[in-house]
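Try this one yourself first.
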């Protein structure tokens, strides 16, 4: 059973950081200085399966609205709806703010976000040497 919760302790945040380091820094070779930007102003989430941390994500306010980012699921747990659970929890929690919700999706993941109400806007671009597309949430 997957549980997604708002991170409230330093131990939970450390678990999320370990997942992000594994996925982004080691697996995808993203520069560490980029990975750890905007930590303080972000609202972080942790996904657990049987109380074991398996995924994480965060959102933060920007000039454009609410940016959802840093979706990471450990390799052996991908394809088990953990990303969907994280996304749906964040959408539920941010709906009350009535702001534009958007994200920068790695192009290989754009289809996933489309299934949950996001639409691509603008041109493709590169971030951390990975091709991305900006996507806006268009409906609940």
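Now uncover the answer:
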């Amino acid at each position: 059973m997957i549980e997604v919760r708002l991170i409230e302790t330093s131990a939970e945040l450390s678990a999320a950081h370990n997942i992000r380091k594994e996925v982004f820094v080691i697996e995808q070779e993203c520069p560490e200085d980029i990975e750890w930007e905007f930590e303080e102003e972000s609202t972080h989430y942790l996904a657990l399966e049987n109380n074991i941390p398996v995924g994480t994500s965060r959102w933060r306010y920007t000039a454009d609205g609410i940016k959802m980012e840093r979706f990471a699921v450990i390799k052996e747990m991908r394809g088990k709806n953990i990303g969907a659970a994280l996304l749906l929890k964040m959408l539920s929690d941010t709906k009350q703010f009535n702001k534009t919700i958007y994200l920068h999706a790695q192009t290989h993941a754009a289809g996933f976000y489309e299934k949950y109400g996001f639409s691509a806007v603008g041109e493709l671009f590169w971030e951390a040497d990975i091709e991305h597309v900006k996507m806006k949430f268009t409906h609940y």
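Discussion: The two ends are 24 Å apart (CA to CA). Helices lie at 10-27, 32-35, 82-94, 110-114.
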